[in-house]
């Protein structure tokens, strides 16, 4: 009897793990349908549906090569961080729907930073196309917040485990370019500084001053810095 319970527990665990990630496709492709192009009662009906995961499929007979294609230009790095991430997730490339992958191009000016962030729904693997990057990730509290870092050059690859805070800094003297592949069609991005200091509505200063052990004037200054 104990063996039966053990088997049931293992099956429950494996099924829950499988459902925690993007669903596997049951057809050749499921190009995401852009419901903004729909009209009438059908559009009204869609807006009142609850979508648990993924997007509706376009009629396969109407699918074309352009649904699987996107050109990605270099990002504009003239911002305070000196870096620009150009995502190619399912919202930008409908053909990714149900395929469980996506990517992003990251452009860096000299000393540019892709600031600490997480992808709650995807592991990231990064390859450097040009330049030199200092990259790293921090483990969870359970693992005592260990920092793993590496300096990457052209052709080098580094993996950031799902959900962990990570970053990339251009430590070279010229521009840098990297491509990040992710294990989800919509991995999501939470930029730590933005989440804390650009929350809408703002997080109570009482929370932030206590968390960072600083005066309210410091929190006020940080919030102003992120108004750009």
UniProtKB/TrEMBL annotation:
<dbReference type="InterPro" id="IPR019780">
    <property type="entry name" value="Germin_Mn-BS"/>
</dbReference>
<keyword id="KW-0052">Apoplast</keyword>
<dbReference type="InterPro" id="IPR001929">
    <property type="entry name" value="Germin"/>
</dbReference>
<keyword id="KW-0479">Metal-binding</keyword>
<feature type="binding site">
    <location>
        <position position="124"/>
    </location>
    <ligand>
        <name>Mn(2+)</name>
    </ligand>
</feature>
<feature type="binding site">
    <location>
        <position position="119"/>
    </location>
    <ligand>
        <name>oxalate</name>
    </ligand>
</feature>
<dbReference type="GO" id="GO:0030145">
    <property type="term" value="F:manganese ion binding"/>
</dbReference>
<feature type="signal peptide">
    <location>
        <begin position="1"/>
        <end position="20"/>
    </location>
</feature>
<feature type="binding site">
    <location>
        <position position="117"/>
    </location>
    <ligand>
        <name>Mn(2+)</name>
    </ligand>
</feature>
<comment type="similarity">
    <text>Belongs to the germin family.</text>
</comment>
<keyword id="KW-1015">Disulfide bond</keyword>
<keyword id="KW-0464">Manganese</keyword>
<feature type="binding site">
    <location>
        <position position="166"/>
    </location>
    <ligand>
        <name>Mn(2+)</name>
    </ligand>
</feature>
<dbReference type="Pfam" id="PF00190">
    <property type="entry name" value="Cupin_1"/>
</dbReference>
<keyword id="KW-0964">Secreted</keyword>
<comment type="function">
    <text>May play a role in plant defense. Probably has no oxalate oxidase activity even if the active site is conserved.</text>
</comment>
<keyword id="KW-0325">Glycoprotein</keyword>
<dbReference type="InterPro" id="IPR011051">
    <property type="entry name" value="RmlC_Cupin_sf"/>
</dbReference>
<feature type="disulfide bond">
    <location>
        <begin position="30"/>
        <end position="57"/>
    </location>
</feature>
<feature type="binding site">
    <location>
        <position position="119"/>
    </location>
    <ligand>
        <name>Mn(2+)</name>
    </ligand>
</feature>
<feature type="binding site">
    <location>
        <position position="124"/>
    </location>
    <ligand>
        <name>oxalate</name>
    </ligand>
</feature>
<keyword id="KW-0732">Signal</keyword>
<feature type="binding site">
    <location>
        <position position="114"/>
    </location>
    <ligand>
        <name>oxalate</name>
    </ligand>
</feature>
<dbReference type="InterPro" id="IPR006045">
    <property type="entry name" value="Cupin_1"/>
</dbReference>
<protein>
    <recommendedName>
        <fullName>Germin-like protein</fullName>
    </recommendedName>
</protein>
<dbReference type="GO" id="GO:0048046">
    <property type="term" value="C:apoplast"/>
</dbReference>
<dbReference type="InterPro" id="IPR014710">
    <property type="entry name" value="RmlC-like_jellyroll"/>
</dbReference>
<feature type="domain" description="Cupin type-1">
    <location>
        <begin position="69"/>
        <end position="220"/>
    </location>
</feature>
